[in-house]
Design a protein that fits this description.
By secondary structure, the chain is mainly beta. It has 2 domains: about 240 residues, Rossmann fold; about 525 residues, Neuraminidase, CATH 2.120.10. It contains 6 helices and 42 strands. The chain has a 10-stranded mixed beta sheet with strand order 1-3-2-4-5-10-9-8-6-7, with helices on both faces. Strands 20, 21, 24, 25, 26 and 30 form a 6-stranded mixed beta sheet that branches. The chain has a 6-stranded antiparallel beta sheet with strand order 27-28-29-33-34-35, with no helix packed on it. α1 runs parallel beside α3. The longest helix is centred in the first third of the chain and has 15 residues.
Length: about 850
């Protein structure tokens, strides 16, 4: 390693923004041509302004590659040299000799800015700015750096490099963001969330990386214009004025101006360069910038995604394109099947009179969209109970066609599974109905649903006197077990928005405000995630490992249902199973209380959970991370009784016909209220939270609530063998998509879970917003009702529309594709070819 002193320029340059023509004289042009020749291999004539210059030749070093990979470490500063320089140079020199010989490089360190106007700049694969702040390059020197990048060079900026060249728009773009003039000066220990698990700079780092450094705040958040690979969690240190909030990038990269640029805000202390993990971070960044390794630095740049609405508005009075959106699934041939719950357009008559045999009758529609033709087919419909329209709890209804799944062998057998409430099975006197999961056949020639092919697998009673919470989602695991999500079949009223545990009122002796009758009942299939194994003959068997065998009793004489895999969920509209791990993911809507109550318990918590084993998720006894509600019972449900013990639950509802002693409530991974994500409170000696709003701590600051209707999404799995040009990149592989029906500040995020803790209620290790990729707002996807990835790697999203219990011109199927290209550098541009 050779280190040369800084040569002070003989003049100071004027302010420079953009790319003024005066900066590109003969010298800059000569350097640009020489750099291009050295980086790409070859020795072309030097460009010049005079004819006699056109024949001039330069003696150039060998092109980078082979044994000649070199890194220039530039460490000039407008003021005193930072104490990080010596430590950084020593670390980078050591990094250059780590790993296999194919990854080695040599370095040269200099403070002499004239290197940027010399032909030998082209011998370096990457330039590292280990600078302090200030104006360290004159116009010709900056022009040389620009031309170096245009020729395919690599750049790594460390910490205060973001303060260099403060008057240059081009350098701002190269760095990606500028720090504010305020913020904490002292080093503080904080947690870094490492979101990119594939980039060479981050793939070997902890998911949650705890380390001390000097943390910079940004004048403008660069996320979305750069590819952020790591963020610092602001609630783990004191960010001071100018804090950026939950999305606080600290390391990012981008393909810039023909070359590759990586920046890390870490490295603000000399001790940083002694850390093995930080050196690993720098090493990965240098492998990419020197062209020794490839990396995808385009995956989260929002302009690389294209969102298209693929369905048109329905023709007046028809559902030729879409029904009332309520779920979707993709076939292996790329077709997208999506359902309408049962509400029609505004012209559809709604019957609410129970004396009328047509009460609540609607058509649950099944449509398919074919990516090969871009055409929609109305495959068929089933007549459902579920079109009572809006109104109060005793008028509106959420039953209907609720869920859809395709058989794993759908392309050969045409089997399709529907979760619905047939109108033909309602009892208008008792106001009870039958919910069922049935198998139908879709004719492959006509793409039409054969109603005569129905085989009813599973059926159970539901009350339809009062709204709400029907659930509906379905999913398969690799053992061909079918998961079926059911809502608690309970009213949202009569409990002031807290626990749905009011034994009053009833209709014909059936309680409709007591979820202990359903979700908390081991002998009831509502408020559950069921798991069955469908058989060829249209029946089902029970797989091993469900929550109950169906034979349990206790001192109360209660019973169980063997179909139950998960109990204690409120309204799980969407569930998914990770194709790689067979892990079940679910989300469900919470009650309506806007604030926590020291008398009754937590506010409404919408919830997401990673479910790795049969379990009780708590409702209506406990929510969130085992936060209990207050019990209530006869003779006066308005008077609070004791707090539920989440670890030793008893279902003492007068409407419970299952076990009294039920499984303990388990902690969930994500929960949010109108105040924000992950509300938590101090607890007393008995473990009871204070539920005082002033004492609330938000454990998940990236989440905010509002109207709230949790919509679980898929875990993305990238197929490296796919020929699709629309597939989302491998960056998203293994990330879990969680969202909300509403498009305000509610979640639409991709989260990284720590596999060591995910199945035990561990919090997400990292989250990033999808709002700029999945368009929101009046002309975007405003009401997310379902989302899944297709075999083409594109994301398909259902927008419910702008009303309730109906379809409207905004109801639509969307397709979101990736157009960013493959990782860089391209294989033929690697500095050393793989042997």
């Amino acid at each position: 390693m050779r280190r040369t002193p800084r040569q002070e320029p003989s003049h100071r340059r004027g302010l420079s923004t953009g790319r003024p023509k005066s900066r590109y004289g003969w010298a800059a042009g000569m350097i640009a041509t020489a750099v291009t020749a050295a980086l790409l291999g070859g020795s072309p004539a030097v460009a010049g302004t005079a004819p006699e210059r056109s024949a001039a030749r330069l003696s150039l070093p060998s092109p980078p590659g082979g044994e000649n990979v070199r890194v220039l470490v530039f460490h000039a500063s407008a003021g005193d040299e930072p104490p990080t320089v010596d430590a950084g140079i020593a670390a980078i020199e050591k990094i250059g000799q780590q790993g296999s010989a194919a990854e080695h490089f040599t370095i040269e360190a200099t403070a002499d800015a004239s290197v940027f106007t010399k032909p030998r700049l082209g011998k370096f694969n990457a330039v590292v700015f280990l600078t302090g702040g200030g104006d360290v390059l004159d116009p010709d020197q900056e022009a040389g750096l620009e031309r170096y990048m245009e020729a395919g060079g690599g750049f790594l900026g460390i910490h205060d490099a973001a303060r260099a060249e403060p008057y240059s728009d081009w350098f701002t773009g190269l760095i990606g963001a500028r720090p504010t003039g305020s913020g904490p000066a002292a080093a503080q220990r904080a947690t870094v969330e490492v979101g990119d698990r594939a980039n060479p700079a981050t793939k070997d780092l902890p998911v949650q990386w705890k380390r001390p450094d000097r943390w910079l705040n940004w004048t403008t958040n660069p996320s979305g214009t750069v590819h952020t690979v790591a963020r610092v969690r602001e609630n783990t240190y004191q960010p001071g004025t100018g804090a950026n909030g939950w999305d606080h990038p600290v390391s990012w990269c981008r393909d810039y101006d023909g070359g590759r640029s990586f920046y890390t805000a870490m490295g603000g202390t000399a001790d940083s360069f002694q850390e093995a993990d930080f050196r690993s971070h720098l090493r990965g960044a240098l492998l990419w910038t020197t062209r020794l390794a490839r990396a995808d630095c385009q995956a989260t740049i929002t302009t690389n995604y294209k969102a298209e609405r693929v369905t048109s508005p329905n023709k007046p009075g028809s559902s030729d394109q879409i029904g009332e959106p309520h779920g979707l699934v993709t076939a292996k041939d790329g077709r997208v099947f999506y359902i309408g719950r049962g509400g029609g357009d505004a012209s559809t008559p709604v019957v609410t009179d129970w004396n009328n045999p047509e009460v609540g009758k609607g058509e649950g529609t099944v449509h398919s969209w074919d990516p090969k033709t871009g055409k929609v087919t109305l495959a068929g419909s089933v007549t459902v109970f579920g079109n009572k329209g809006g109104g109060d709890e005793l008028v509106k209804n959420e039953e209907g066609l609720l869920g859809i799944e395709l058989d794993p062998d759908f392309l050969s057998n045409g089997w399709i599974y529907l979760h619905y409430t047939p109108h033909s099975r309602i009892d208008r006197d008792t106001q009870m109905a039958e919910r069922r999961v049935s198998r139908f056949t879709v004719n492959p020639a006509t793409n039409r649903l054969d109603l005569s092919s129905e085989k009813v697998l599973l059926k159970w009673p539901v009350q339809i006197h009062s709204c709400c919470h029907a659930g509906g989602g379905m999913a398969w695991d690799s053992a061909r077990n079918l998961y079926i999500a059911t809502g608690d079949n309970n009213s949202s009223q009569f409990s002031d928005g807290y626990s749905g545990n009011n034994p009053e009122p009833t209709y014909k002796d059936v309680a409709f405000a007591d979820a202990r009758r359903t979700a908390g009942n081991t002998n009831n299939l509502n408020g559950k995630i069921l798991r069955i194994h469908p058989e060829q003959d249209g029946t089902y068997t029970l797989p091993e490992g469900n929550l109950f065998s169906g034979k349990e009793t206790d001192e109360g004489g209660g019973k169980t249902r063997g179909e139950i895999y998960v109990m204690g969920v409120r309204n799980p509209s969407r569930i998914s199973v990770d194709k790689k791990t067979d892990t079940l993911y679910a989300g469900w809507v919470g009650p309506d209380a806007g604030t926590p109550s020291p008398t009754w318990g937590p506010a409404k918590y919408d919830t997401f959970a990673v479910i790795t084993h049969a379990s009780n998720r708590g409702w209506p006894f406990c929510m969130g991370n085992e936060q209990p509600y207050r019990d209530r019972n006869l003779p006066d449900p308005s008077k609070p009784l004791g707090w539920y013990d989440c670890d030793h639950l008893k279902n003492e509802s007068p409407h419970n016909d299952g076990l009294v002693n039920i499984p303990p409530a388990e902690s969930n991974n994500i929960w949010y209220s109108p105040q924000g994500g992950g509300p938590d409170f101090p607890r007393d000696a008995d473990g009871i939270p204070s539920y005082e709003l002033s004492q609330q701590k938000l454990l998940l600051p990236w989440l905010k609530g509002g109207g709230q209707a949790a919509m679980d999404g898929p875990v993305y799995r990238h197929d490296p063998d796919s020929a699709s040009k629309d597939a989302w990149p491998a960056y998203w592989d293994g990330k879990w998509f969680v969202g909300d029906f509403y498009d305000g500040e509610q979640p639409r995020h991709a989260v990284v879970m720590d596999p060591k803790t995910a199945g035990n209620g561990g919090l997400p290790a990292h989250a990033e917003s999808l709002d700029k990729i999945i368009p929101v707002g009046a002309d975007g996807i405003r009401n997310l009702m379902g989302w899944t990835f297709g075999p083409d790697g594109a994301l398909y999203v259902l927008d419910y529309g702008r009303g309730f219990f109906t379809s409207d011109p905004k109801s639509a199927l969307w397709r979101i594709t990736y157009k960013g290209g493959e990782p860089t550098p391209l294989p033929q541009h690697l500095a050393r070819k793989a042997s």
